C-alpha cells in the first residue's frame, strides 16, 4: 500500500469514521466518555500518520491532515473541559484543514492526469 493510500485509510478510519460514530452514538449521558474516546482515537491516528514512511510528494499533504486531526482532538478536549464555544471553533478549524487537504489532493490528482 502506498503512503498516499495509507494516509487515505487513516483519514477514513480516524477522522471520518470517528466523526460518524461519535455523531451516531453520543447523547447527554455519555458525552464525556464519547469525547474522551474520540480524542484518544484522533491521537492514535496522529501517531500512525507520523510513523508513515512517505515520499516527498506524499509528505506535502501531511501538514493539512495533521492540523485537521489536532484541531478535532482539541475540540473534543475542549468539550471534556466544558469549553463548548472553543470546541465549536476548533471543530471549524478541523473542517477547514480537512477541506484544504482534500482540495490539495484533488488538484494534485488532476495535475497527474
What keywords describe this structure?
mainly alpha, about 85% helix, about 110 residues
Report the sheet with the most strands, covering strand number, pairing sense and barrel closure: none
Strand content: under 5%
Report how far the terminal alpha carbons are from each other: 21 Å
Number of helices: 5
Low-pLDDT regions: none
Which radius of gyration do the C-alpha atoms yield?
15 Å
Number of domains: 1
Alpha-beta classification: mainly alpha
Give me the count of strands.
0
Order of helices and strands: HHHHH
Q: Summarize model confidence as the mean pLDDT.
A: 91
Detailed description of the structure:
By secondary structure, the chain is an all-alpha fold. It has one domain. The chain is 85% helix and 0% strand. It is built from 5 helices and no strands. The longest helix is centred in the C-terminal third of the chain and has 29 residues, at 84-112. The protein is elongated and about 50 Å long.
Can you lay out the helices and strands and say which pair or pack?
Elements: H1 3-25, H2 31-51, H3 56-59, H4 62-80, H5 84-112
Helix pairs in contact: 1-2, 1-4, 2-4, 4-5
Condensed summary:
The chain has one domain.
